[in-house]
Amino acid sequence: MKRTERLRAVLDLLAESGSVEIDDIVDRLGVSAATARRDLDALAAEQLLTRTRGGATAQSVAYDLPLRYKREQNAKQKQAIAKAASGLVPVGAVVGLTGGTTSTAVAGALAARADVAQPAAKHGLTVVTNAVNIAAELVMRPQIRTVVTGGVVQPRSYELVGPYSDEVLGQITLDFAFIGVNGVDPTFGATVHDEREAAINALMARRAERAVLVADSSKIGRRAFATVASLEAFEILVTDDGISDRHKTAFEDAGIHIVVA
């Protein structure tokens, strides 16, 4: 495993429970204790964690970790998921996008569609988002009408949260809402690491005719701190071919249509 991959893996371990021990890294990643210590020291120097005796604790919730460490994680799978999600959306639709790397990939896939970019009297798509990075990407596309919810910016995740976001979302309707999550489980539903993010995601899902979860298979069967909604709130889960048959069956039994990218 390359050093960059190890650092990402250590951050993933840290995200699971908020703390990690050197012994956990040794057991899970198959590295020496000396290597585990050096990796923790390197991440501490980047202010991504706080070193403790024998391990480390998180300085911030997992979604707050700088995007430079998350952008390439499961990138191939996320691009496949984004393409499949984009394929669900007809021209002229109103689409909601939450923050997160998978949702950002969906935004890119929508922006790249030739049928959306065709000059026409009406916009090819209307996109409503609470992620300022997504808005910045789409605003350059003249045939995509971009609506930003407003709210307080989370400085590292670029997401807008709070009552201003609630006010805007409460007055609009969506054809589709693509909801990015940190975990999705047949029993616990869709979850994220922050309760403010969970509230916005849940409201966006409720305002949509079709609420769609977008999550790579590493998030399947996992749960995070704050519940977005039970599976009943969603119609579709778009994921990659890493989903197990057991989980696929469990989601289908819960009434979720699975799209495997």
> Structural class, from secondary structure content?
alpha/beta
CATH class of the largest domain: Alpha Beta
End-to-end Cα distance, whole Å, is 26 Å
Major β-sheet profile: 7 strands, parallel
CATH topology of the largest domain: Rossmann fold
Radius of gyration: 19 Å
Principal-axes shape call: globular
Order of helices and strands: HEHHEEHHEHHEHEEEHEEEHEEEHE
Helix content: 25-40%
Q: What's the rounded overall pLDDT mean?
A: 90
Low-pLDDT residue intervals, each spanning 5 or more residues: 60-69
Percent strand equals 15-25%
CATH arch. level architecture of the largest domain: 3-Layer(aba) Sandwich
Going across the major beta sheet, what is the strand order? 6-5-4-9-12-14-15
Taken together, the total number of domains comes to 2
Question: Could you describe the 3D structure shown?
Answer:
With 261 residues, this protein is α/β, with parallel strands linked by helices. It folds into two domains: 3-59, Orthogonal Bundle (Arc Repressor Mutant, subunit A), CATH 1.10.10.10; 73-260, Rossmann fold, CATH 3.40.50. It is built from eleven helices and 15 strands. The protein has helices at residues 3-17, 22-29, 33-45, 67-70, 75-86, 101-111, 114-117, 132-138, 163-169, 195-206, 245-253, and strands at 19-21, 49-52, 55-58, 94-97, 125-129, 144-148, 152-153, 160-161, 174-180, 183-185, 189-192, 208-214, 226-229, 236-239, 257-260. Strands 6-5-4-9-12-14-15 form a seven-stranded parallel beta sheet, sandwiched between helices. Strand 7 and strand 8 form a beta hairpin.
